[in-house]
């Protein structure tokens, strides 16, 4: 009611406490109804003028505002916008969900799909190679003597063929080994690539693969290595890295973080337990662990950070320094301490 009294005083041009037809027309125009016909204004005045004196006093004006709320509503909105400043987000401040809004399908997320197709082709090459061999009695795809496996597997006796530190990711022992890696790397890789683009995801994946072979070679120098598990674990911990760096910008960040942590610790713990208790277990858990560490460090280093905070700059430098220190140490040991490793075979 106080607002109605204020409006009446504002549009009472002759200060007589009454609103005539001319003043009512101005009031309606102020309410953003500029094209209302004059006869409509007269009808509104006539219906609201209960004493038929051709003017509206305050009581009549107040009653009119109750029956014609559309007339006052726009004026009130304009008044509020003028008096109350619009909220302005702080510079660099992003609401929850800003991370998800960065997702884009241009360019299409095909990096992990391409890697997966190559891995499938290499697997099929070895399967087809042995399909007509009567002496081959191993289950589907479990032989490492095929042409692709022989060329690409990490062979500790052929470390001088340096491509094997990466190419072993194209070799898989058994259909289940292949399928599990493909499913995880496609789903996790595409989710990362939608936000961080193909080259960052490729760096994380290859860094995990390289760290897997490097770590295995240093800790178990006589172990052969096959599969992309190092790269897969790198993608898993890269998700943890991006959650840490974009925590405030992500929806349900704590739920995602807990899910990935539980998965990592459960799977790694199971792998270590089986390796220690089953003498026939051939899962290279060091490759898993090394790939996970690389994915976390490289993920912090190369994945997008939507809002860089001071502590995140320090974390970035720590991650980059640790990763390069570990990789440099591994390379130096391989080059300058050859006696630690099995004697090379050049056949």
TrEMBL record:
InterPro entries: EF-hand-dom_pair (IPR011992), EF_Hand_1_Ca_BS (IPR018247), EF_hand_dom (IPR002048), Peptidase_S54_rhomboid_dom (IPR022764), Peptidase_S54_rhomboid_met (IPR017213), Rhomboid-like_sf (IPR035952), Rhomboid_IM_Serine_Proteases (IPR051739). One of its GO terms (cellular component) is membrane. Gene3D superfamilies: EF-hand (1.10.238.10), Rhomboid-like (1.20.1540.10). Pfam families: EF-hand_7, Rhomboid. It comes from the Eukaryota. The chain crosses the membrane at residues 110-130, 165-191, 198-217, 223-245, 252-273, 285-303, 315-337. It is a multi-pass membrane protein. The active site is at 229 (nucleophile), 288. Keywords: Calcium, Membrane, Transmembrane, Transmembrane helix. It is found in: Membrane. The keyword Transmembrane applies. Residues 36-71 form the EF-hand domain. GO terms for molecular function: calcium ion binding; serine-type endopeptidase activity. Its main location: membrane. PANTHER family: RHOMBOID PROTEASE, RHOMBOID-RELATED PROTEIN. Belongs to the peptidase S54 family. This is EF-hand domain-containing protein. It comes from Drosophila navojoa. The lineage of its organism: Eukaryota, Metazoa, Ecdysozoa, Arthropoda, Hexapoda.
């Amino acid at each position: 009611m106080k607002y109605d009294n204020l409006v009446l005083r504002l549009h009472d041009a002759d200060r007589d406490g009454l609103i005539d037809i001319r003043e009512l027309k101005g009031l309606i125009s102020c309410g953003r109804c500029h094209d209302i016909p004059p006869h409509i204004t007269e009808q509104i005045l006539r219906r609201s003028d209960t004493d038929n004196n051709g003017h509206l006093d305050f009581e009549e004006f107040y009653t009119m505002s109750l029956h014609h709320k559309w007339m006052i509503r726009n004026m009130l909105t304009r008044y509020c916008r003028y008096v109350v400043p619009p909220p302005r987000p702080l510079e660099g401040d992003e609401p929850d969900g800003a991370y998800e809004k960065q997702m884009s399908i241009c360019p299409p997320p095909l990096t992990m799909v391409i890697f997966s197709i190559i891995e499938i082709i290499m697997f099929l090459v070895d399967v087809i190679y042995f399909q007509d061999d009567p002496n081959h009695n191993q289950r589907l795809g479990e032989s490492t003597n095929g042409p692709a496996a022989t060329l690409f597997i990490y062979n500790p006796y052929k470390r001088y063929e340096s491509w094997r530190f990466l190419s072993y990711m194209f070799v898989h022992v058994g259909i289940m080994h292949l399928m599990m890696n493909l499913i995880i790397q496609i789903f996790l890789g595409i989710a990362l690539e939608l936000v961080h683009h193909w080259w960052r995801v490729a760096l994380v994946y290859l860094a995990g693969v390289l760290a897997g072979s490097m770590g295995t070679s240093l800790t178990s120098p006589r172990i052969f290595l096959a599969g992309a598990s190092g790269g897969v674990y790198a993608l898993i911990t890269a998700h943890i890295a991006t959650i840490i760096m974009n925590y405030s910008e992500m929806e349900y960040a704590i739920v995602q973080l807990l899910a990935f942590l539980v998965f990592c610790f459960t799977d790694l713990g199971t792998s270590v337990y089986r390796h220690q208790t089953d003498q026939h277990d051939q899962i290279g858990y060091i490759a898993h662990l090394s790939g996970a560490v690389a994915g976390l460090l490289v993920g912090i280093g190369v994945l997008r950070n939507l809002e860089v905070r001071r502590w995140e700059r320090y974390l970035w430098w720590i991650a980059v320094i640790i990763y390069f220190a570990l990789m440099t140490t591994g390379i130096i040991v391989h080059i300058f301490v050859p006696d630690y490793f099995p004697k090379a075979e050049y056949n």
